[in-house]
Amino acid sequence: MPARPALIAIALSVAAVAQAPAPGRAQTYPDFESQWRSAGGGDAWDPTRPAGLAQQAPLTPEYQAIFEASLKDQAAGGRGNNYRGACVLDGMPRIMSLTAPMEILIQPGLTFLIFQQAFARRIHTDGQPMPDTEPPSFQGYSTGRWIDEDGDGRYDLFEIESRNFKGPRAMDSTGLPLHKDNATAVRERLYLDKDNKDRLHNEITTFDHAFTRPWTVTKTYVRERNPRWTEYNCQIAPGAVFIGLDEYRLSPNGRLKPLHEGQPPPDLSYFKQR
Amino acid sequence: MHKTTGLLVASLIVASAPTLGVEMKYPDFEAQWRNPTAGRGGNPWDTTKPMGLGQEPPLTPEYQAIFEASVREQKKGGQGNSRGSTCILPGMPKVMNFSEPMEIIIRPHITYFVPMRYPTRRIYTDGRAWPKDEPPSFGGTSIGSWIDLDADGRYDVLEVETRNFTGPRVFESSGLPLHADNQTVVKERIYLDRNDKDVLHDEITTIDNALTRPWTVDRTYLREPIPYWMEKNCYEANQHVLIGAEEYFVSADGKLMPVRNGQPPPDLSYFNAPPR
What we know:
The structure holds two protein chains of two kinds.
Chain A: H1 4-15, E1 35-38, H2 61-75, E2 102-107, E3 110-115, E4 121-124, E5 141-147, E6 157-163, E7 185-192, E8 199-207, E9 215-224, E10 240-243, E11 246-250, E12 256-258
Parallel strand pairs in A: 4-5
Antiparallel strand pairs in A: 1-2, 1-9, 2-3, 3-4, 5-6, 6-7, 7-8, 8-9, 10-11, 11-12
Chain B: H1 2-12, E1 32-34, H2 61-75, E2 102-106, E3 110-115, E4 121-124, E5 141-147, E6 157-163, E7 185-192, E8 199-207, E9 215-223, H3 234-237, E10 240-243, E11 246-250, E12 256-257
Parallel strand pairs in B: 4-5
Antiparallel strand pairs in B: 1-2, 1-9, 2-3, 3-4, 5-6, 6-7, 7-8, 8-9, 10-11, 11-12
């Protein structure tokens, strides 16, 4: 299977054929600059289906088993593959579910997606490739292209490709997993609804080795005309203790407790044994 | 003291309005800016003086004592008033230390300061009044006005006033404190250097009941010709773990470590399972 990342790359390059703007014409950008909220569907990755197994995610048998184990763990009170409680970043593509508002700002060469509950995403539209020195991240590195589909001098579509990830990442809070090799690639097509310019669609296709095929869902965002912002800072819940990604509880007398029955205690090999 | 604070701020707000009917241009602020002193042996609030007691801040006796206690505790290896290890937000004015680069984006109604790892600062320049229902925050609420000093049709200065805070907040990581009442008012005058347009000044005046007088510092930022961004999550980088009253470290391989020689391990009497 070493050729699988190459397969993802080929699939993306074929899919990324896009219409370039007519040279010499001053292009104008679509009316994206606004605060946007999710049109609904909660945190489930495919907003047309309920969260959990009903997502019918195209997972490989190995990752289907990992997903089912996550659901079982959550049903028993654990957090499964959902690491948000440890303030691990959601990363891509999960942040595009917009569980909190997002603002878009367009600059020549760079488009900003500014989130209330995540770091800003920067979509590089200057045509430059990703620098070789770019460290992997939860959000990845995003390059984008503005496309004028009908040649009227105004861009209609924003195509984005994101790569260079680290993990662990899940698609949603049920712990629907992405592959631990982090070779994910995400393609997005953002455009305003033809009949309602206060609705923004995002067709998101995720290529990942946890899947048997690319998985496309369409998220819809609603323009907020009177934006409000709340300051967000992820804080570990009172009484929770994380040692790395392992979660424990704190007893009222300040001692470490297991989160669930049978949980092994932390490794204390760095302490001198008495 | 609060009334005094209010009067001081009101007297400082005098600003020249732009010429009516003229389309004004914004100064060349839109760039990534970095603090040239960040990461070089600390990040002092007044960059002309060393961190800690060398800042000679105009603190009231009560807050001077709080500050000195923080410095003493840090010398012993504690955190003092600095809450960085808990991943609490630095808030204003400390966030203007620019421990990492920050980008400025200007729109007619809002100027954005987009930092690398903190919430985006929005400075409202649409003439709005102070909101009455805004919850207090570490970053506060910022209202600004653009000023054309020489009436040449291009703005020169962004004046910003920020209020409505929560805490605890400090000026710098030595734990130099702000008052627990969170009645802080921060005034900023942001402008390009006359002789070098790649240098941005932020004259920051902090009015706070922990201070005997408004405290002004001039912070300068350098334009970054090749901007770079890193995803920096406080929790990911945070090696501190608090179990009850005891602090520990987490090693690179995810194991618990003592922070001092001879520190006993945590009590594991609640666990029945064998160690992992």
